[in-house]
Specification:
The chain has 317 residues and is an all-alpha fold. It is built from twelve helices and two strands.
Length: 317
Amino acid sequence: MGFLTPEIIQTALEVGLIYALIALSLFISFSILNICDLSTDGCYTLGCAVGAICTIAGHPVLGIFAAMLAGACSGFVTAFLQTVLGVPSILAGIIVNTGLYTINLMVMGFSSNLSIFGTDTVFSLMGSLFSSPFWITWNRLLLLLLIVAVICVLLHLFLRTRLGLSIRATGDSLPMVRASSINPAFTITVGLCVSNSLTGLAGSLIAQYNKMSDINLGTGMVTIALASLIIGETLFGRGKMFVRIIGVVAGAVLYRFIMAVALRLNVPTEAFKLVSAVIVAAAIAAPAAKNMIRFRMKVSAARKRRRAEEKGGSGSC
């Protein structure tokens, strides 16, 4: 048995693509809008709960769009607290995340978990299209690739529109946006609605992927998304917008591969949050460490040149 079997690689790719949607959500709020949105955990569970309820009712495709709408509503409340009531972004996210716990329980009928085994999901519907062994094995990965690719293209196109450029400008310089007669409250609201709709989408997909919804499923998702985002930006840099978007997706998949390796190394599941924290810290420290190593190399090279010059000077005398 290999260290990473094809099944483990396939699962890492599939779950990594779902995580990529949350990372893209944080990319909009954290990197573009410069807002620390801590409602991600609750919004992810909200999408999971709404998607599960719709799937149980026999509407798995509708569940995806309903979860995105629920996520957008969560983003609207977060933006309302910030822009209208003047609540700081961190506190607004904490307030919404706390309130969503009860709302998620209400959506799931005050049950801590829901099972959707025995009902059709978007993945089972996709798998029933063809009967070839290749399709049966890879249809879930292909569906997730299609969804993430469409989201990446649409997000790139949206950020190039006038509204998208206004959202990007809001994160760069709020005073400049106000001076340009652009309403920053509107751009922040739209940005957070779009951001949280992607989190809701990820929640609905993971519910149908795992065929269950749990009230604690979203715990720590903001850490995972932050790790994926920072890994992507560290590897791909801050260049063109589409490259940054692809980098976020690649960072999420790479993060999932790191967790798969940790699992194969028999790291206990209780320590996964610690592993996530270490990954985030390492990704954040990577640029500074790289600059430090480069500086040390320059200093070392300068010292060698100085010693060589001193030896050459003493030899001529």
